[in-house]
Amino acid sequence: MADARGQWNSRFGFIMAAVGSAVGLGNLVRFPAVLAEGGGAAFLFVYLLLLLLVGLPAILGEMSLGKLTEMSPVNAFRKLGGKHGRQWGLVGVFGLLAAVFVLFFYTVMTGWTLRFFLAGFTGGWFDDPNGYYDQIAYGPWAIFWTSIVVAVTVFIIARGVSGGIEKVTRVIMPTLFVIVISLVIYAAFQPGMGAGYRAIFQPDWSVLVANPAIITDAVGQVFFSLSLGQGVMLTYASYMERNQSVSEDGSIVAAADTGVAILAGMMIFPTLAFTGLLMDPATQEALDGGSFSTAFIALPNAFVAMGDVAGRIVGTVFFLGLFFAALSSAISLLEVPVAVLVDNVGLARPKAAILVGLIIYTFAVMSSISEEWLVLYDEIAVNVFIILGVALATFFAGWWAKDVRKELERGMDSRAGVGFSHVLLWFMRTVTPLAILGMFVFTGLWGPNEAGDFVFWGENARWRALGHEIAHVFGWA
Amino acid sequence: MQKVDIVIGVVGIVALIATGLGVAFYDEINNLEDWTVSEHNIALETRTEESEASLEREFIYPAPNNATGATFEVTITASSTNPAQDGNVDVQLRLDGPDGSSVERTGSFPFSDGSATFTINSTGWIDVPQDFQGSTDARDGRAHDWDGAEIRLTVIVEGPNTVPLPIPGIPQPSYEAQVAGDVHAYQATRDLPDPGAAQ
User: Fold this and answer.
1) What does pTM read for this prediction?
2) Which residues in chain A have their CB less than 8 angstroms from residue B198's CB?
């Protein structure tokens, strides 16, 4: 069955693809800003703890589901669900819909990264670092670049697991690592970079004490960063060879994902520091604004401050890395619905890829022209499908599917020993689902109000924000 | 032809239609607007006791809902009745937001043999006030009701006045300027909440 569906040619190919899925825009630009705001090394300590206790069991559980069944998400849950397979299959549908809804806007954002890379040669952000993003983010040209991204992704997926996905990610992921490491080294040798390292590594526990909601943010960051709940890791693992170890390879993916995020922080903040922009109010505002402001406004300003030659080179290389990170994630997301069509409907892969690509593109047109639709897709993906899907999936893997536990034990036996696998499984059955459900309920019902206080049913409570967004988009409020 | 080919064809047509509609109705969906600026033969003031003549004109547009920025591309043609006049013409284009924030672009262009034509364009970002009249989205702090707000395009053209003394019977040389171009309001995304799934 595996050969007909496709299979990774090598362990390295699988790891590159899975790391490519996990490493995205958030690793390169969101995590560093969250790290700096969340108390530096204090936040990092909490994040790593959550990664070990919550994220790692979750990713290993999801991968085990895929490798055991050699099926895409819907069929995987159906098969292991036994006589309740049809009901459990709905969890797979959650993952499928999560991947699809994310693609509705992620393709648009990937288009932004591509434009910023190409603009390094033509001017664009270098000529107008504060305004270029505003010019290109939405509009008819954004539709065009979204279509390019969708077409490229469809082409790669259509060529198959080893001939398409593996072949591309084997090139772009190592290139991304080289880019990130090179920029880290470059920034490390610039005078005045020290403040940047202090911003992300100096521990400030008072931030966590004053705002414990940061911990729920960290839980969410762990899940989103590892691409959980979207059926991606499950699908990718379904193409693994039998002798590959989920526990070993999954751990490598989780470690690489976090490593890239930390390296990105070591690249971005020292860069802001040595260009003299770290404490600039406009930069602080951009960092507070999130991933987009950091990537497309704060950093272009920093690159411009480096000078005409250095700034253009460094900036263009950075945006190439950002594009590779986004593209590899988009590829993995598109693979999920294609795999479902191939497995469940029996479609040939190229036609399934084209069909899914066209559907994704049609909905992405709205994200290309309207910020509100982009945010709506994201809110639905996160608040409806991902969080709930991950909670149910980890409960399923930890309590329902005995085979998953045996698979993990088999994998652990070869290296870390049986004891470690029991500990990990215990976390998967208890800590992980509780953490996810807790985050789901807590951030769904509690959130910052206008004054910034974290209260019950605050304006930014997830479910309230989702309802507001839906009402606003459809003109009901 | 298989059934899936028909499905692909239909979805493809839908995608094309969506593309066309998106392009055609982008401004309407976002309640954005375009304005055309066209002012001709605006006379500059010429004061004999001053060394410079200047023109300042302000074009005011009601800001539409959801717009948080604007681009402008304006061509200014300045000419003088004194063909021997040389010097520089300074141009300032300023976009003023409803809360007093502004962005401006300036240029200084040579003015020789009595005429000069130059084009200046830019992208402006206008901060949305938190307490602006109308509903606000607490999540991103953006105002969504812009009734009464204005986007101001201010054109200032300054040039030398090299005829300080009036000479009876000889008309005072004067500057004229023509301003033509477009202002396009768009929806900017600086306040975009961080998509959680975009990892």
Assistant:
1) 0.79
2) 24-26, 30, 102, 105-106, 109, 224, 291, 378
